[in-house]
Amino acid sequence: MAKILIVEDESTIAEAVAYNLKRQGHSTAIAADGLAALEAFSREQPDLVLLDLMLPRMDGISVCRKLRQASNVPVLMLTARDEEIDKVVGLEVGADDYITKPFSMRELVARVQATLRRVEMDTSSQATGASALSVDDLVIDPARHEVRRAGSLVELAPKEFDLLLFLASHQGRVFSRDAILERVWGYSYGGETRTVDVHIRGLREKLEDDVTSPRYIETVRRVGYRFRQDAGHA
Questions:
Q1: Which of 81, 96, 154, 217 could lock onto 147 through a cystine, CB 3.0 to 4.6 A?
Q2: Stretch 46-60: mean pLDDT
């Protein structure tokens, strides 16, 4: 069971989320604003953070940036805004996923459970010393949880790393967005999130010389994505 920090300024929502997570056996802590969230994070050392986008004193984007400077703890952002830019920015600063309000408690709990399972699997993989994967000048090291290109370290968000490792481990195989969400995030596609597209774009911006002609991760129109089997010769 995990300790979960809920950062939400609407007390009724925070308490309802806490109640439902406790029913699953998790312990919770609540912070009602951004600065209180940073203090609570340092004090509680949670296993996962549910982070509202719109907060008093410090917004969720700024909080997420601060958390990412100190930790790779999974962050799920909660947002009532419809503008795609908010969701995109949230993921680019290191959030693992976002959930749009209003959400069902069943969906929220399922997302939390899936994220925690994925973290446990990643930790187990690192502990067993999984071998590094080399593709031309790209080296993906699960044990160190790091990526190097031409010897230089590439800074990736935790879920960007997971996504890259998954695709590179299945070179040449095409995966739909649904399949990627199930395999990398651990939950079924709900039809409302562009999480995969956002993370693919982030990876390309960090790995590719020309994002319009990707060398590593290829878009297969109307199907999904694949890691090119001939990546080293593109």
A1: 154
A2: 95
